[in-house]
Amino acid sequence: MLQCRNLSLTLGKQEILRDISFQAQPGTITILLGKNGSGKSSLLSCLSGNQTKYTGSVELDGKDVRSMGTTERARALAVMPQVLPLPPVSVAELVCFARHPYTGYTGRLTAKDREIARQALQHTGMYVHENHKVNLLSGGERQLAFFTMMLAQQTPIVLLDEPASSLDTEYRRMVYRFLRDFRNQGKTVIAVMHDLSDAIALADTIGVLHSSHMVFWGTPQAFLSSDVPGDVFGLTPVSVTAQDGSQFTIFRS
Amino acid sequence: MRRHPLLLFPVLFALLVFAAFLGMAYGSAQLSWQQIWGAFQADSTDTARLILFQLRLPGVLGALLAGMGLSVAGLLLQTTTGNDLCSPNVIGVNAGAGLAVMIFLCLFPMAHKLLPMAAFVGAFGATLLVLTLSFSLGGRTSKATVVLAGVAVGTLFNAGISFLSQLYPEVLSSYSAFSVGGFSGLYLEDLEIPAVVILLGIVLAQCLSPKLNLLCLGDEMAFSLGVRVKSLRLVSLILASALCAATVSFAGLLGFVGLIVPHMARRLAGENIPVLVGICALLGAILVILSDLLGRTLFTPAELPAGILMAIIGAPFFLFLLFKKRR
Questions:
Q1: Is B210 in contact with A89 (Cβ distance < 8 A)?
Q2: Which of A136, B56, B84, B129 has the most C-beta neighbours closer than 10 Å?
Q3: Alpha helices, DSSP H only, in B84-227?
Q4: Is B7 inside a domain boundary?
């Protein structure tokens, strides 16, 4: 379980986050929403241990992230940043990088590590691109390559910063499928997103950041029935029934 | 077409042995392989043994060590700064060594024996200054601040060299011999300490290489995979500066090796740093031995320092890289 207690972050004179507290349970997807500059990415950075200059605490199963060793943390938390790098390595090599926290001082991969990487490539279908250079893949393929890498890292917690922001509908659907896969594997998934409709469809829990504060934390249903969509985003949720009878939510301004 | 990296090692090692043999055999006087073999067996004529042990072997070993040290340093610098055009010059090595040698020549014009020590201290001191400045400017040793601090320190130190050369024009001839870089006048004992530093440095670089591999993912992802990015960058930069300083101490300011060899190695063997460390060391050694050999044989009886020949080869290659990057 990932627990955040009274987390506040001030950089220079600017208050980024103030008194944020929540718990994210295993086997759930938590989506963090908020306008640009509301502190979502900074919160993710604190959760990952990359940003440590905050007050309060972030705990993994009761242990403070800041007190964890680098290897211990890398075995517990996988991170996908908002802007993905363009490494000049093959997809297979990239996925093998995910096994680094499990290799010893020599950095040598075992047969087990290679098997885990191969299974991850099979699972996401990226084995067809395994010899392709990551920096030459399309945006969607690159995103999937990094998902494969996260899968091979085998961490109980995955943190993603806008994992589908620049993808077309097809790749976006694939990304959401992988997020659900992570949830079904019992992982704690925390993702920053901008699309409210997608967030409602995907999340078990929604957190809304506004002006450095967590102004909402609850289920998608509670979010829809609250004033938050209107107050924070200036949007009104509308429930729509599709021709096949399924219901979904869209937002109108 | 990319060759299998592990197949390259025996090929490059054989080429290195061949280049070393050529380096020992050719020069103003030619030695046959029987004479070389005989000299090692201590049953050859005195002249052949004298030429080999007093002239050729120190030069070849010096070129081998310089090629290895500068190439691996260049690889470390390019990897840690994420800048393909980074080389030992950029972190202030040459300017630091140059200024220290210039000051030493001005103060102690007769103490030539201590010049290598001055060069080492200058090179290593300058890079430590660059790292300290970078730490103060950027909070930590970030990629950009290292390069910017290196350029600033290099410019300042080069101004110091020019200033001293105006005040003490009599030391210019000694300084120019150091500044072009080369291996003439070397003794085997001159190489003992640099050899230990360079070989130890390469072993350490090999140990760091699996973690260096992850830096291509950017600091945030490398951190999430268990790499202490800032510490790794700092240790790698100190290691690179020690390799460069050890090389500068006996070879002078040998330019372009640290820039071009990592690029050549990447084209041959890909991007895997653990493989590239060894490939760079072998390729750098071959290149510098051959440059030194060409310098000694192309214009016989005159000898062209290896540094000048490296610049003649290196400058067009540098331009090629720039054009290729633009495309």
A1: no
A2: B56
A3: 93-107, 115-138, 143-167, 172-180, 192-213, 219-224
A4: no
